[in-house]
């Protein structure tokens, strides 16, 4: 993963699911590490406030990923391509939080995205957002045969 720059492996393109999607330019065998979901780590209360602000300013999509109960990764402003990933009920990738040792000898959580099946070059990379039910039901239009019509 480190050897090949991200621009040569992945590309954002218009998706039939929603807006922009993340597509792979190369074949990815099952269990490949695809990309890190990078962004700014913020507290839940800050995330809630920002979400409202993004809504009001009409910034459109907001890209947030729950790290744990207290922390959220906000990729809206400083994220990488990973934020373009769409939800699908038949996802071909999954996100996993792993602990990485920092230079200071501390542990830092990182969100890594892995393939859960063989993905062919040109295919869109999707994962199951697994939104908590408290956020209300969001409509899903992924088009998978097993689509349940909502994201949670
Ligand atoms: Zn669906």
From TrEMBL:
Uppermost EC category: transferase
Chain ranges of the Post-SET domain: 136-152
InterPro entries membership: Post-SET_dom, Set1-like, SET_dom, SET_dom_sf
Enzyme Commission number: 2.1.1.354
Statement: the UniProt record of this protein carries the keyword S-adenosyl-L-methionine: yes
Catalytic activity: L-lysyl(4)-[histone H3] + 3 S-adenosyl-L-methionine = N(6),N(6),N(6)-trimethyl-L-lysyl(4)-[histone H3] + 3 S-adenosyl-L-homocysteine + 3 H(+); N(6),N(6)-dimethyl-L-lysyl(4)-[histone H3] + S-adenosyl-L-methionine = N(6),N(6),N(6)-trimethyl-L-lysyl(4)-[histone H3] + S-adenosyl-L-homocysteine + H(+); N(6)-methyl-L-lysyl(4)-[histone H3] + S-adenosyl-L-methionine = N(6),N(6)-dimethyl-L-lysyl(4)-[histone H3] + S-adenosyl-L-homocysteine + H(+)
Location in the cell: Nucleus
A Gene Ontology biological process term: methylation
MF terms (GO), sorted A to Z: histone H3K4 trimethyltransferase activity
Domain SET: 4-130
Keyword Cytoplasm: no
SMART domains: SET (SM00317)
Keyword terms of this UniProt record: Chromatin regulator, Methyltransferase, Nucleus, S-adenosyl-L-methionine, Transferase
GO-annotated cellular components: Set1C/COMPASS complex
PANTHER family linked to this entry: HISTONE-LYSINE N-METHYLTRANSFERASE SETD1
Name of the protein: [histone H3]-lysine(4) N-trimethyltransferase
């Amino acid at each position: 993963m480190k050897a090949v720059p991200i621009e040569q492996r992945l590309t954002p393109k218009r998706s039939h699911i929603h807006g922009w999607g993340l597509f792979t330019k190369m074949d990815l065998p099952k269990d490949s590490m695809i990309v890190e979901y990078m962004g700014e780590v913020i507290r839940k209360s800050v995330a809630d406030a920002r979400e409202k602000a993004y809504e009001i300013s009409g910034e459109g999509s907001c890209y947030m990923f729950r790290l744990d109960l207290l922390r959220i990764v906000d990729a809206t402003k400083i994220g990488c391509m990973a934020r373009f990933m769409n939800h699908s009920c038949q996802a071909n990738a999954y996100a996993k939080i792993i602990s990485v040792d920092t230079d200071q000898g501390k542990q830092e959580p990182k969100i890594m995205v892995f393939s859960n099946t063989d993905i062919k070059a040109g295919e869109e990379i999707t994962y199951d957002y697994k939104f908590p039910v408290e956020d209300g039901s969001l409509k899903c239009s992924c088009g998978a045969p097993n689509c349940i019509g909502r994201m949670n």
